[in-house]
Amino acid sequence: MNNKLDNERTMTNSVLFKKLYLYLKPELGKFILAILMLMVTVGCSLAIPTLYGYTIEEMCKSTVDFNRILSITLIFVCILVFTFIAEYLQALLLQYTGQSIIYRVRMDVFKHIEYTSIEQINQIPIGKLVTRVTNDTNALNELFTDVLINLLRSLVTLVGVIIFMFINNVKLATYMVVLMPFILVMTFAFNFWSRRAYRSVRKNLSEINASLSENLSGMKITQVFNAENKQYNEFKQRNERLRKSNLKQILLFAIFRPTIYVCYLGTVVIVFWFGGKEALATSNLAAISALVVFEMYIDSFFNPIQQLSEQLNVLQSSLASSERIFEILDTESNIQDFDDSIELEELKGEIEFKNVWFAYEGENWILKDVSFHIKPKEVVAFVGATGSGKTTILSLIVRNYDIQKGQILIDGIDVKHIKLAS
Fold it and tell me: What is the pLDDT of residue 286?
C-alpha cells in the first residue's frame, strides 16, 4: 500500500486488453455490429477488382455484350452505395461506443484520485495527474473509435485478398506469399520497438506537463530566489529528452514504411514478369484480365500493410496511455477502512489526542507526544509559528494521514475505526 501514483510499471498487452475489455463490455453489442458492417464493406471492396476483370474480358471480345457490361456497372454502383451507408452507420456506432467508454474512464480516474490519500497525492506533480485525466484518456479514445476497427479492417482485407488471389491464379499468388514471412517478422519487430518508443514519449511528455504546471504556478517563488536559470536548465533537459524520444519514434516509422513500399514494388515486378510472360505466350484474354486483377489485389494487399505502420503507431500510443491510466486505478490508497470500521451517524464533537507522534517523513517529527482534549461545542484556537503543526493537527483529525504513535479519538472512537466516508 505504499505505491506512488507516478510508479513506472510495464504491463503486457494481454493484461491491458483484459482491463480495457471491462470498459468495452457494456458497449459490446454495438461494437460487434460495427465489426459485422466492416466485414461486409471489406467483402464488397474486394469484389471490385473481379468486376474489373469481367469487364476487361468482355471488352476484349470480338463481340461485346453491352447488356453484361451494364449489369456489371449496376452491381458496381450498388456496392458503392451499400458501402457508403454501412461505413456511415459504422462510424456512428464507433463514436458512440468510444465516447461512452472514455466518459466512464475519466469518471473512474477522477473518482479514484479523489479517494487517494493526501500523502500519495503530494508525491506526484499535479501536471502528471492532469495529463492522465486529459491527454491519456484522449489517446485512449482513438483506440476504440479508430485504431481497433482499422486494424481489424486491415487484417480482414489481407486475408480476403490472399483468398481472392488464390481463386484467380494459384501460381502468381504463391510468388507473392513467399514475401509474407519477411513482412510479418518486420511488422512484429516494429511493434516491439515502437511500443518502447511510445512509452518513452508518454513518460517524457508527462514530465514536461508536470514541470510546466509547477513552474508556472510557482513563478513568484522562482523569481524571489532568483532561480530562473536553474529552472530553465531543468526544463531544457526535460525538453531535450522529449525531443530525442520523438525522433526515435519517427526513425522507426521512417524505416518501416519505405521497406514495405520496396516489398510492394518487388512483388509487382515479380507478378508482371512471370504473369506477363504467360499472358504474352498464350495471348489468352483470361490471363491478361487475371494479370490486371492481380495487380489491383497486390495494391489492396500492401495498402493495409502500409497503413498498419500508422495504426500500430497510434495503437502503441493508446496502450502506453492506458498503461499510465491503470497505474492510477491500480494504486490503492494507503489510508483504508478497517474491517470493523463503523459509520458515524451522529457527531457530538468531542476530540481527544493521546500521546500523538507524527512525521511526514522518517523521524522528522512534526508532533511529539501531543495530548489534549476538546469537549463538544467547545471553541479552541491553535496558535503557533509557521511549521509548528497547526494545519497538521486538522489533517490528522479528518485522517488525511495516519499517525505513527498514539491515538486520536472522535466522540471516544479511534479515527482509524471510523469509516472514511463518515
Answer: 64
Burial of 76 (0-12, 13-18, 19+ CB in 10 A): middle
Strand, coil or helix: what is 411?
A: coil
* Vertex 279: Cα angle to 273 and 282 (nearest 5): 135
Q: What is residue 30's three-state secondary structure?
A: helix
C-alpha cell at 155: 487484417
The pLDDT tens digits of the residues spanning 122-161 come to 777 777 788 788 888 888 888 888 888 888 888 888 888 8
Integer Cα distance of 304 and 299 in angstroms: 9
Residues pairing with 414 in the sheet:
409
Angle (deg, nearest 10), helices 148-168 and 285-329? 160
Task: Dig out the grid coordinates for 362 from the structure.
Answer: 522518517
pTM: 0.65
Q: Please, which residues have CB within 8 angstroms of residue 183's CB and are 6 or more apart in sequence? A: 260, 263, 305
Tens-digit pLDDT profile for residues 319-359: 888 888 888 888 887 777 777 778 877 888 899 999 999 99
